[in-house]
Amino acid sequence: MQPDLRARLARSARFSRQIREFFEGRGHVEVDTPCLSPYLIPEPAIDAFATAFHPAAGGSVELYLAPSPELWMKRLIAAGSGNIFQIARSFRDGDLGGPLHNPEFHLLEWYTVGASCRDQIPVTEELVARLAAADPPEVPRERLAPPFRVVTMQEAFVEHAGLDLAACTDTGSLIEAARSRGVDARDGWTWEQAFHGVFVAAVEPRLPRDRPLVLADWPAAVPTTARRRRGTPWAERWELYLDGVEVANCYTEETDPGEVARFLRDEAARLRSAARERPARAVPRVDGGYGRLFAGGFPACSGVALGVDRLEMVVSGERTLEGVINFPLSAIVRA
After folding, report:
1. Angle at 22 between CA 35 and CA 153, to 5 degrees
2. How far is it, in rounded angstroms, from Cα 238 to Cα 251?
3. Residue 166 and residue 258: Cα distance in Å, rounded?
4. Residue 225 CB-density burial (10 A; 0-12 exposed, 13-18 middle, 19+ buried)
5. Which residue, 187, 249, 254, 194, is CA-closest to 218?
6. Fold that domain 3-148+211-334 belongs to in CATH
């Protein structure tokens, strides 16, 4: 075994051990949830892997590889688990392009009862600082050190795209704004598609890298299970960028049964529509019991999903996930 390989394997093992020690020290209980599921939360932006179970008695049951442990962890929260965390193997079809994607990856997900997304910022600061300190980063230390810079999505759009996002409530005007910024936006695009077009082309590449950046207050018009900030067009959500790489996503979780039911209904319809345009993609069944979790009074909480492989990549100074994943699919396919 080569010395650099031994060092990489030791670093990955240390990452996992320190993550567990960190959350156990904060009173979070580690949980384990299924990789296989007969249903998923509908997410049109994510392609799921489909497979099948063939019982000895005959027949088959369609199953899906979980793109995140959220579905099952929220069942535990609803049942009274309290604060929980998991380092889960997660799977997303189509994620084999560029340096930041692999179809199979490690996702750290944790939920804190009674917390908001803003409460999770100092927790994430402490976690990143601890992991970076134990394995001195190859990137300039200030790019990983707390405190994180917090910028709202509105501020980022004004500064980097010259666009008042709050004023662009009309889909047509946002499409025109996207075109004027070099985005090949089509007439049939939704508001969300136009938003992402401007974000990817004009905002994200210009986000500062000199220190960790929390991009907060995402538009509520982008469908998620994040709670809407009352009286505003924004959702209680942030994403964390380290050295220009998006590594974490956080919500103050929506707990209103009506809002959750509306989200499930609308996203299931969008998923079916997207599948008609791409017949090869799987259309997972929607979890019929998921919405009922909230009818009995789901606890107020906040959840964070953090890409462990991406975080390790940034800390170690690697340029691609191939530098931290032992057997990336891209390398296996090339072989």
Report:
1. 75
2. 7
3. 25
4. buried
5. 249
6. BirA Bifunctional Protein; domain 2 (3.30.930)
pTM higher than 0.90 for the full model? yes
Q: Give the span between the Cα atoms of 270 and 190, in whole angstroms.
A: 11
**Token pair of 153, please?**
């999505």
Bridge partners of residue 45, in order along the sequence: none
Cβ contacts of residue 90 below 8 Å, gap of 6+? 66, 67, 68, 69, 104, 105, 106, 107
Name beta bridge partners: 151.
Answer: 215
Between the two ends of the chain, the Cα-to-Cα distance in Å is: 20
C-alpha to C-alpha distance for 192 and 203, rounded to whole angstroms: 15
Does residue 246 contact residue 237 with C-beta atoms inside 8 Å?
no
85-116 pLDDT per residue, tens: 999 999 999 877 679 999 999 999 999 999 99
Q: What does the domain layout of the chain look like in residue ranges?
A: 3-148+211-334
Polymer length in residues for the chain: 335
Alpha helices of 228-306 — where are they, by DSSP H?
257-277
How far is residue 62 CA from its own chain's centroid?
Answer: 25
Alpha-carbon dihedral 241, 91, 268, 300, rounded to 10 degrees:
-60
φ, ψ for residue 145 (rounded to 5)? -85, 145
